[in-house]
């Protein structure tokens, strides 16, 4: 069934891609773009996934099969494909009517997207000369200091650059997607490229090229499309030895570039959850999905598999998908904006979850909109081939306004040690990982590493640092600080290199510490009860 429904999409990919990789070479060569619609595979996380620069995630489009594997190095697939639906009520020009509309980065009926790579400020249609510019960017292929690609033939420098030194609670910075490739340098952005996790994956795509829509360009134009949405997608992933190596975070920065107010908007993640081993795609027919009603604050649904289609003893566990950040609205559904991350209890959160079978696919604008706005929360309905869909809304999207929505995908083995059964007791490992990831996103410091603000008396420079940091302690009314100088990572682990393990001391003045051996990332320096932070690049 899925093989047939993707024939159209697969054919489109072959036509649109100008540089598919030869059969006598590895299937995917990192950073060698495959054409306008770039298909790439990540490298460092324990979560093994494919991604495209048009909003489709988790499918190996070239081989027409699932593209989300856990753990890396196995043949255990957890997803066939996924994408985003964005629903809105829009006032049509020259009409007194409002219309329900839904634009999609993934149509499960044919596997294709209504979005194309690129920026709306360039043009509405896909550019024919920007394969490298709007490719998928992997931070592992760039110099983290100057943003240049490790292979100069790869194309432009890293696209996301820090605007200022503001560090938000989730350890990202105020940053710009720099469309002008000549400005992607430290002369224009002295604070350097914005790279956060062990492998950031960046792509940008738009909904303004009607030629890729189902139903034809003119028909969709008559229906009021496009909505004129710009998506900047960022995927965070971590290496195998990190606490978050079994998780990835997909963050979407969405901008309404139109002159229209989009009312009663909903954002939906559409996930074709298929758990199967290797080439046994038939194993997707006995999957299980349910909303995690035990703790609604987690905004979570889970998936697992039965064992009657070859999965028994293959080491399958659980996949959990959670809204980790959603918009916050006022009483009139207008988005609230502030410089710091709003606590999750004040956000919209998950407004609905559906576990519809393939036969229940929604095919019209009205059906899709009502499906997203229904506020239903589905439980376990037994074994079937499901698509899991979760939604957040409603909110009003004003012209020129932007919002950010982030999704956590996490994996864990059954806690009871046998095959997964979906029970609360069997989910404890998964839930612990979800809670840890949410804590990390909102408050990456641990309980024993707390900032004391400017009153600490500590000043650390430079930040970002490369080889050394200098810790300055002010004189005057602030007391001298006593204690051992310790450096912690964001998980509260002491970095015990000789250069950071100093004897107890009391000082006013300055001390210089070699940090060249530290991995890139955020660190905290503590002297006694006083803490300050710096970034190593």
Can you characterise this structure?
The protein is mainly beta. The chain folds into 2 domains: 2-142 and 195-442; 453-536, Sandwich (Immunoglobulin-like). It is built from 5 helices and 29 strands. The longest helix is centred in the last third of the chain and has 15 residues, at 428-442.
Structural class category: mainly beta
Helix content: under 10%
Let me know the largest β-sheet: 9 strands, antiparallel
Separation, N- and C-terminal Cα atoms? 48 Å
Q: Could you tell me the mean pLDDT? A: 83
Form type? globular
* Tally of individual domains: 2
Please work out how many helical segments DSSP would assign. Answer: 5
Number of strands: 29
Low-pLDDT ranges: 3-29, 445-455, 496-506
Strand % is 25-35%
Q: From the alpha carbons, calculate the radius of gyration and give it in angstroms.
A: 24 Å
Quick structural gist:
The chain has 5 helices and 29 strands. With 537 residues, the chain is mainly β. The protein folds into 2 domains: 2-142 and 195-442; 453-536, Immunoglobulin-like, CATH 2.60.40.3080.
